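Workshop exercise sheet. Pairs work together: one partner reads the sequence aloud, the other fills in the structure field after running the prediction. Swap roles for the next sheet.
Pair: D.N. / O.F.
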Amino acid sequence: MLLHYIYQQLCLLLLLSSLYRVDGFYFSWRQDLRPSKSSLNVTPRAASPARTIVCTQVISDVDDTLKSSGGVQVAGVALGGIDVQYDRGQVYPGVAEFMLQLSLGVNAASPTALSPPKVAILTARAEEFKGALKLKDSSSVAQAFVKAGQAAGVDNWGLGPVLYGSVAEWIVQDRKGLRKFSNFERLLEQDPTGSIMQYVYVGDTGELDQEAGETMLREYPELVMAVFLHYVKDQPGAAAATEVPAPKLINGRPIIFFRTYVGAAVAAVQLGLISLDGLESVMEAAVSKLAGVNQTSDKWIDLNRDLERAARLLGT
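Structure field:
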């Protein structure tokens, strides 16, 4: 009986997906601005005088952004993502510290600085299966974020609201980006005037996060300061320096592609989103996380490349 019910629900979802086409939206997106060598030197646009931005909230995907999917597939369909560099479930080195620093901003040491908002999660994981796929407080990801906040003297920080996808996106994979964008619009309801919160979106290149991020920048450039996309591969090995896509701009806002969270932090410093001290905290966390990994590993090859970039920025 249960299997028959599930079958009926899946058939209904397939019917609905065939009735609602998404034409002219971001599935036929165009490139608004060609990648530029000076992309990272663009000064973020000033907020409107009528807006008093108080907080930056980081919005994040889960699989292949916070932790590796391991490239696991079921019946030829990726189960969450494509990354095979890290084992399934491994939390990426420095990810929690990077998102904390984005949340704190460049004025983290100011005596008037407020407690940073928790990270909001936009995921394609089906809400119908939330019982099995829920991000629990005891999970390795949630604990990594809590510990990052505590280490920086920021209590009660970590993962916040989770906005799920549905079974429909598991059936029709191309709908995942649309669902994440619509969930982002739901998140905006927490600040209907758009005068308190600004956002930074962090995703990956494996599951239509780029389309979701580009749509955010087209529709809400006054609210979304930047999009960071973790460049992931379905083949083992380090990524060549020329393999990671160049930054691009949409509505004057940057999309940054990165291989490690140290590389993401370097770009964030150049964009004025985090401080140099914040960059150093990400570096320390990433190096510590890989302490037990062989130095010849492709993980270290990618990280060392970005550590060199960070060292040049720090003048060390």
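Discussion prompt: Residues 23 and 51 are 34 Å apart (CA to CA). What would you look at next?
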